[in-house]
Write a structure and sequence with these properties.
alpha+beta, 9 helices, about 60% helix, disordered C terminus
């Protein structure tokens, strides 16, 4: 399932959300320009659980923060930034910019902690904003469970456009992270290098923290109907 947009207007422009997206894009462009030096850069600034748990140093303790702004490829970056764009504005609106930034960072740190706890001896660097963004999704579930999310659902060769309550979309998303995470532990389906338990940890942190930071509790707007002509399309 791919979220296209949510039907949940905000009172102010989400400048911090835009700023986070811009920063992530800028860092990725810098990574891309490094060429052969990219691997060493990622090893230095990404989270390597082994160095945090077995050989901790001042440098390694900085990586849970720096790793949130690194990505492993264009698709990794675009997927994360799209989710932040769709869901981040309402959380920023409800929390305020400074509290949203703190909430975002704390969710990202919780995500790192969860993945490191699952695989403390891993020597593969972990990078990406998805743990912090998972916290945004958890916060969205708590504050706006009835908001409508326009979602693309692939059904065989068709793409179905549906409006789902946010709690349904996020429940399915979180369930998939748990399933894939346990499969990766058992090496059944293969983890594909994705730190699924970082997603789980960030999401749970978002659920737990958002009420502490929220200055208002938004109310989701009433349901709307997608026009029939938008409900189905064939890929070209």
């Amino acid at each position: 399932m791919i979220p296209l947009r949510d039907i949940n207007p905000t009172k102010a422009r989400p400048y911090l959300t835009y700023g986070l997206i811009a920063l992530n894009v800028a860092v990725w462009i810098y990574q891309w320009m490094l060429g052969p030096a990219l691997e060493g850069f990622v090893m230095r600034w990404g989270v390597v659980p082994y160095y945090l748990t077995q050989e901790p140093s001042l440098g390694s303790w900085m990586t849970p923060l720096t790793s949130m702004f690194l990505h492993g490829g264009w698709m990794h970056l675009l997927g994360n930034m799209w989710f932040l764009y769709v869901f981040g504005d309402n959380i920023e609106d409800a929390l305020g910019r400074s509290r949203f930034l703190l909430f975002y960072v704390l969710s990202g740190l919780a995500a790192v902690a969860a993945q490191v706890a699952i695989d403390p001896g891993a020597k593969v660097p972990m990078v990406g904003a998805s743990g912090a963004i998972a916290g945004v999704l958890g916060g969205y579930l708590m504050l706006f469970p009835r908001a409508r999310v326009v979602t693309v659902v692939p059904i065989f060769v068709l793409l179905q456009f549906v409006e789902l309550p946010a709690w349904v979309f996020l429940f399915v998303w979180f369930g998939l992270q748990l399933v894939y995470g346990f499969f990766s532990l058992a090496d059944v389906a293969g983890g594909g290098g994705v730190a699924f338990f970082a997603h789980v940890g960030g999401f749970v942190a978002g659920l737990a923290l958002v009420r502490l930071f929220a200055r208002t509790h938004g109310r989701a707007p009433g349901p709307r109907v997608v026009r029939p002509e938008l409900r189905r399309m064939r890929p070209r």
